[in-house]
Target: Methyltransferase
Amino acid sequence: MTELLTEGVPPLTTPLDPARYDRFRTGFHAVTGFGQRLLAARLVAVDALPAPGGTVGVEQLRDRFGVLPQYDRLCHALLDILDRAGYLRRAGDRFEVTDRIPEVTGLAADGVAAAEADRLREAYPEVAGYLPLLTTCQARLVEVLDGRVPANEVLFPGGSADLVSAVYRDNVQLDFFNQLCAERVQSHVRQFLQRYPRGYAEVLEVGAGTGGTTGPVLAALGEWADRLRYLYTDVGPVFLRLARRQFGAGRPYLDFARYNVEGSPDDQGFEPHSVDVVLASNVLHATERMASTLVNCHRLLKPGGILVVNEMTRRLDYNTLTFGLAEGWWRYADDEARIPYSPLLDGPGWRAALEQAGFTGVELHGVPVVDPVEQVQSLVVATATGRH
Model:
């Protein structure tokens, strides 16, 4: 991936086991295919699709099942998945059912889906954590679409983050990017504290969620604990309570606060231009207006401070089939420049948005063994100027 480093910043050196990563990619491809089959099977099971040769449209599905308006984009994205997977064939503004549909008959049954998930778990242990969330979301898909079951009850049953957390646990790709985040934050904090021997570095993490990135970053900053303030923020009080239990003990420099990155920092009690690093991991895509979101991040930072963004930069069917059930996934405004059928920005999109918001020195970091056009995740880093 193209890499533009700010002056004086060394290249990142986080290691990656190529063989393990290759096994992960192979397994993830298999899980994606399973998800596509599950989706097709679920729609067959509820008589949403006609026999092969018949056609179906988004409006027809929406009206038949009483799909809530906020899931209109999800409906379009689901049909696009089935089109690319070969179960449907686009025909104008409708989709023709192909003769591949009979292949998935019966897969939606709980026992059959569970058996296939077990087979994949055994064959591809590197992606085992992806399967429980996928099967759970697809089993409740129609109930979420028509509003009988809130998406959060599916993603976080009983308020538990276990299903989502399993995706992030022992995940070679996500671990790699979390370590990249940690290395880049550590590098900036080190340089700042060396330049200001009596200073204190302030790091603010927005949308910290379940803390998947927080742990590696805190570990990387441990040697400067007596010269550090780390502010763990999220809009959800549940996440803050969980994080306080998980990270709070023995870290007097760690504070917790509610913060909505879509709102002005000033209006939420945050001092403008006071932070050295703003960290955002897999959260900024879930905002309505990226321009105003990035301006708010810029306003938090001192001139010369950095924004460290860990984000998906390519649409993945797995994410549509799972996290796509959450209304927040589709919050972006109609005129926003996002990757089609997703809330995401690609690398050039991030560069343009950051520069428009007053940032400079944009860096893009990816997996070194992957071709740039196939990168699905990126570490994006940019430096705040005196603007905004």
Strands lie at 55-56, 88-91, 94-97, 201-206, 228-234, 254-258, 275-281, 301-312, 359-365, 377-384. Residues 98 and 164 are 33 Å apart (CA to CA). DSSP finds 14 helices and ten strands in the chain. The chain has two domains: 19-168, 171-384.
